[in-house]
Write a structure and sequence with these properties.
The complex is a heterotetramer of chains A (158), B (151), C (371) and D (358).
Chain A: H1 2-29, E1 55-58, E2 65-66, H2 73-77, E3 83-91, E4 97-107, H3 116-120, E5 126-129, E6 143-145, E7 152-153
Parallel strand pairs in A: 2-7
Antiparallel strand pairs in A: 1-5, 3-4, 4-6
Chain B: H1 3-13, E1 18-20, E2 26-31, H2 35-44, E3 52-60, E4 64-72, E5 79-87, E6 92-94, H3 103-114, E7 117-119
Parallel strand pairs in B: 2-5, 6-7
Antiparallel strand pairs in B: 1-2, 3-4, 4-5
Chain C: E1 13-17, E2 29-35, E3 38-45, H1 53-58, H2 64-68, H3 77-92, H4 98-126, H5 131-151, E4 160-161, E5 164-165, H6 173-196, H7 199-205, H8 213-218, H9 224-227, H10 235-238, H11 259-281, E6 302-309, E7 314-321, E8 329-333, H12 335-341, H13 343-347, H14 352-362, H15 366-370
Antiparallel strand pairs in C: 1-2, 2-3, 4-5, 6-7, 7-8
The chains are: A alpha+beta (158), B alpha/beta (151), C alpha+beta (371), D mainly alpha (358).
């Protein structure tokens, strides 16, 4: 019957529309479902995963010592030339010359946080930090020196 | 069909076809001039039915170009690779966009990045780069001092 | 074999859709020739986000070039990485440990789910329903959190390295994924209520953008777009890689060939991905997560091709090695590029409003097209 | 008890006792103009805020929550931004029409406010052809939209304007027929008469089935007429970026935006007057105590309550449904709504003659 089909069709159409409205109406009345995170306000309670890759940092211990030997493995592993290691020669007490890092230059503006440098580091000197608010007003501020001033290589790291 | 059976069938079809074996798929090497009849045969011969061109790539071998067609059949589930040698000074090859419609776009890409001219293509134009772009970026001798950073 | 390419006659309206347009979800530029509201011709102009990843890959080592591919189809970045890693492993003939294989597949399916959720929201937004987008993002967020915890990043994970994965699963991984499964199972029916069953949505989708099986094959359309036309092309089924061969899942096939069929394929694929995750999550084998590889990888001279199924279709990586530490030539056969080539054919004769529906069901990701 | 009637009467008598009648009339005009503009501004702010909050809660978001209490000053801040922005005129645009269009749309919206009874005996102009006036004037707004679309010198705008023209002209018909069916029942075109006829019950209850049908048709038609989703073809964001107001910026855009919301308010108040009894309180038969409590609620609260209920309904549609396509939209009108409403009008006439209503 044409008229029965027609009414069925209209009924189905209206029903489908009402189901959708029921769904949005549910969310309109159930404010507990809201998922908005009010970002700067919840900064104190915000927990980032410890693996989150925010930027490359060099680990320093309490004696201001790091584990970087200046082997440039990270520099070679980096796909974007983010890392530049400037080496110098230290003179050991025995009078031998020894290669050490002078400056570990890190271009945050080029970094894609791919983790390849951390993977490549044989001594575990660098790691990824969980910071993520990197915006600055001047691009040159993104060029960072990772080894702290006056720091030296930890004893026994080769 | 297995690679061996494919090789036999194709040899029966076009006797002087050159094959490379050892790779995952059967590879046919040919010249740019002979490409159209070969591919038409591959597409239309019953039992072969290569109806799905899933990849078309250009390769710059410094002495010549290669256009590599990866063909597959959605009914027989066999795959063949056809490599056509294109002259580097006068890079021209027949279009296959009338055999597989997808080739239309892939050929545009190869033209844009390698400068290989596909004769008979319905609308050869720069697809990615601007119309007034100089040079063909994926060629090995392409130089761009501004946009290319050499590590 | 060609239809007459639409020619501009007097009375035709030529408009530029994009590169900045809400429906193109990126920087796709389409030149439309309209007759009133009816589409006569669609001509895509690409390259607004072309970074020449293929050229870049030629100067990167085999460890490095994997990460660049995350930037192609950023919604299935993990699967792109997977394809590259498979190619390198094929060349080096490395056996990937069982644990790594399972982890990779789990992550693949999570990525696929996240991608399909985003597609679902964006698709609904294209046809004018704005609310589903936010609902889709709620569930996608759960996946992103899982990704962030294990891989260290939310979108461009770079979790895969040749021989396995970069780092073992996070201890919370299994618990979080199970929580997600329960959450998503309760919400996916809401998706149906909100969009699939809606009469307006069905009218917008049914019979629109018809693509016959023959045309789908000829245009090289792959993935859900082709499966909506009845072309069996799921790489996971046809050419199984990793452990897909031993998994129990269905290849979704619809024969309609219209937008609604493509919609249904993607929608049902979400449930299939969920079922794959359910099968694997309790059966992650113990063992190494990475095979032993040399520090500097050198592929033997030769050509390697590997194909995987991304959320959009078949991704092929064609790698030519000359024996050095970097590839000689890499070609990415990206699914979006081939799918886009069918757009003109699919949208001819339909209305302007249908174009966004067709583009929505093709699920175009522009960086994937431009590379 | 709070009553707007008392305030107007007091002002009227004070003015007439202090000044001579002409000056009193002029001052009254001035007061009315200030009130209308004030109402416009307040309505714009309130409705935009309401829309944002409704959409936010439906989309499981919080919505604006920074400026003012729970974000209530957000629309104010946005208006300030729009006022301060430069109003660009695209190159090649018809500058005169381009500048005129937002005002046309705005003035049309203002005109329709005239015969609307906001509360008991609180009406600017109780014209005896109120319904006719409203339907006639509201169809003028399409001129403003066409003007905007044409003069922008933008193909998207033109497409949007053309769609809007086709849409408004079509949906005018069924909206008019739905309105007519109530006019048939009341036998009067005067809005105050229509409200008064609903003393003992609203038409949607008294007129039962045909009235409900015409109410539904009316809501669908006015949603389309005000270019709201799911009928927002004229500005279909994902297809035409912003349709007829693509090229507008700054204050001109704000006027379009404001006019859209005021139009919603107007059509919803017409709907409330015709079907839901305007400012009449809700009465049930002879439940004297209940009716007395209902009477205690001021008439203006009743009116605005009903109007905002209808506005919420329209917003609910917008944030739930996908958009129709242009041909489906016209199909819906010409193949479904128009025949149904014609038949419904016939039924209503029969009902009115036979006295089958309560």
């Amino acid at each position: 019957m044409f008229i029965v089909d027609y009414i069925k069709e209209v009924y189905g159409a209206v029903k489908s529309l009402l189901t959708g409205m029921n769904r949005t109406g549910y969310y309109f009345t159930h404010h507990k479902e809201i998922i908005t995170q009010e970002y700067p306000d919840n900064k104190d309670t915000l927990v980032l995963s410890e693996r989150f890759r925010g930027e490359v940092v060099m680990k320093h211990d309490e004696n201001n010592e790091h584990a970087c030997t200046g082997c440039t493995a990270c520099e070679l592993a980096c796909p974007n030339a983010t890392i530049k290691i400037i080496t110098k020669f230290d003179v050991t007490p025995e009078g031998k010359k020894k290669k050490a890092i002078d400056t570990f230059v890190y271009h945050l503006e080029l970094c894609t946080m791919c983790n390849l440098c951390v993977e490549a580091c044989p001594t575990g000197a660098i790691t990824m930090a969980q910071t993520f608010e990197h915006s600055v007003t001047d691009r040159s501020k993104l060029i960072k020196k990772l080894n702290q001033p006056g720091s030296k290589i930890r004893e026994g790291v080769e | 069909m297995t690679n061996e059976a494919l090789q036999e069938t194709i040899t029966a079809l076009i006797p002087d076809t050159q094959f490379e074996t050892g790779a995952e798929w059967l590879t046919i090497t040919t010249d740019a001039v002979a490409i159209k009849p070969l591919l038409t045969a591959l597409r239309q011969t019953a039992g072969l039915d290569f109806d799905y061109l899933f990849c078309l790539s250009g390769v710059d071998w410094k002495t010549h170009f290669n256009i590599v067609y990866h063909l597959s059949s959605t009914t027989q589930r066999h795959t063949v690779v056809v490599k056509a040698k294109v002259n580097r000074d006068n890079p021209e090859i027949d279009t296959v966009s009338d055999i597989w419609r997808t080739a239309e776009f892939h050929e545009l890409e190869a033209y844009d990045l390698f400068g290989i001219i596909f004769t008979g293509h319905p609308g050869l134009r720069r697809l990615f780069l601007t119309d007034d772009w100089k040079g063909w970026p994926l060629r090995k001798d392409y130089e761009d001092p501004i946009n290319m950073i050499k590590l | 074999m060609f239809e007459e390419v639409g020619t501009t006659t007097e009375g035709d309206l030529v408009i530029n859709v994009g590169p900045q347009h809400p429906a193109t979800h990126g920087v796709l530029h389409l030149v439309l020739t309209l007759n009133g509201e009816t589409i006569k011709n669609v001509e895509p102009h690409l390259g607004y986000i072309h970074r020449s990843i293929e050229k870049m890959s030629e100067s990167l080592t085999y460890r490095q070039f994997i990460y660049v591919t995350s930037r192609m189809d950023y919604l299935s970045s993990h699967i792109n990485n997977h394809a590259c890693a498979l190619t390198v492993e094929k060349g080096l003939q490395i056996e990937v440990p069982a644990r790594a294989q399972v982890i990779r597949v789990l992550m693949d399916e999570l990525t696929r789910l996240a991608s399909h959720q985003l597609w679902w929201g964006a698709m609904a937004m294209d046809v004018g329903a704005l609310t589903p987008f936010f609902h889709a993002f709620r569930e996608r967020e759960a996946i992103n959190e899982i990704m962030e915890e294990t891989c260290g990043a939310r979108l461009t994970m770079n979790y895969i390295c040749p021989g396995g994965v970069m780092i073992d699963l996070h201890p919370n991984f299994q618990r979080k994924v199970k929580e997600f499964i329960t959450l998503f199972k309760s919400k996916i029916d809401e998706y149906d209520e909100m969009v699939t069953g809606n009469i307006i949505f069905q009218n917008r989708m049914k019979g629109i953008g018809l693509l016959s099986k023959e045309d789908a094959i000829s245009y090289g359309v792959s993935g859900p777009a082709a499966r909506g036309s009845g072309v069996s092309c799921d790489i996971r089924k046809l050419y199984p890689y990793e452990i897909y061969g031993s998994l129990n899942f269905e290849e979704i096939l619809e024969t309609g060939g219209d937008c609604f069929a493509r919609y249904l394929v993607r929608f049902k694929e979400m449930r299939q991905s969920l079922s794959i995750i359910e099968q694997l999550i309790d059966n992650i084998p113990e063992g190494d997560f990475q095979a032993k590889t040399k520090a500097v990888l050198k592929l033997p001279k030769g050509e390697f091709y590997s194909r995987v199924e991304t959320a959009r279709g078949e991704l092929g990586v064609y790698l030519i090695s000359e024996g050095g530490t970097t590839p000689y030539r890499v070609k990415y056969r990206s699914p979006g590029f081939s799918n886009l080539s069918a757009l003109n054919h699919m949208s001819k004769g339909y209305k302007l409003g249908d174009l966004v529906a067709i583009m929505g069901t093709l699920d175009l990701v522009i960086p994937d097209i431009d590379r | 008890m709070f009553s707007l009637e008392g305030i107007t009467d007091a002002i009227y008598s004070w003015l007439n006792s202090t000044f001579n009648p002409t000056i009193a009339l002029l001052i009254e005009f001035a007061i009315v103009v200030v009130c209308v503009i004030g109402l416009f501004a307040v309505l714009g702010l309130v409705l935009v805020f309401m829309e944002r909050k409704v959409s936010a809660y439906m989309q499981i978001r919080l919505g604006p929550n920074r400026v003012g209490f729970k974000g209530s000053m957000q629309t104010m801040a946005d208006t300030l931004k729009l006022v301060l922005k430069e109003g660009l005129v695209p190159d090649g645009a018809d500058k005169f029409l381009f500048n005129l269009a937002p005002f046309v749309v705005m003035i049309v919206a203002m005109l329709i406010l005239a015969p609307i009874p906001f509360a008991r005996n609180f009406q600017m102009w109780d014209i005896n052809i109120g319904v006719l006036y409203v339907t006639a004037v509201s169809s003028l707004s399409v001129i403003g939209i066409l003007m905007a679309g044409w003069s922008s010198n933008n193909k998207y705008s033109l497409l949007g304007a053309m769609r809007s023209g086709a849409q408004i002209v079509s949906y005018e018909l069924s909206a008019g027929l739905a309105v007519l069916s109530i006019v048939v029942l009341t036998g009067s075109l005067q809005l105050s008469d229509i409200v008064n006829s609903q003393q003992d019950g609203w038409w949607i209850f008294k007129g039962h089935i045909p009235a409900i049908i015409s109410f539904v048709i009316f809501i669908i038609a006015v949603t389309a007429e005000t270019n709201r989703a799911p009928f927002d073809l004229a500005e279909a964001e994902s297809e035409l970026t912003a349709g007829f107001h693509t090229e507008y910026s700054g204050m001109r855009f704000a006027l379009f935006f404001l006019a859209e919301y005021v139009n919603i308010f107007i059509v919803c108040s017409i709907g409330a007057i015709l079907f839901l009894g305007g400012w009449m309180p809700f009465h049930i038969g002879n439940w004297e105590a209940f009716n007395h409590v209902m009477d205690f609620i001021p008439s203006s609260v009743w009116f605005f309550g009903k109007v905002f209920f209808l506005i919420f309904l329209i917003m609910w549609f917008r944030w739930t449904f996908p958009r129709l396509r242009i041909d489906q939209l016209l199909n819906l009108e010409w193949k479904y709504l128009l025949p149904i409403s014609m038949f419904n009008l016939l039924l209503m006439t029969l009902m009115a003659i036979m006295g089958w209503y309560f």
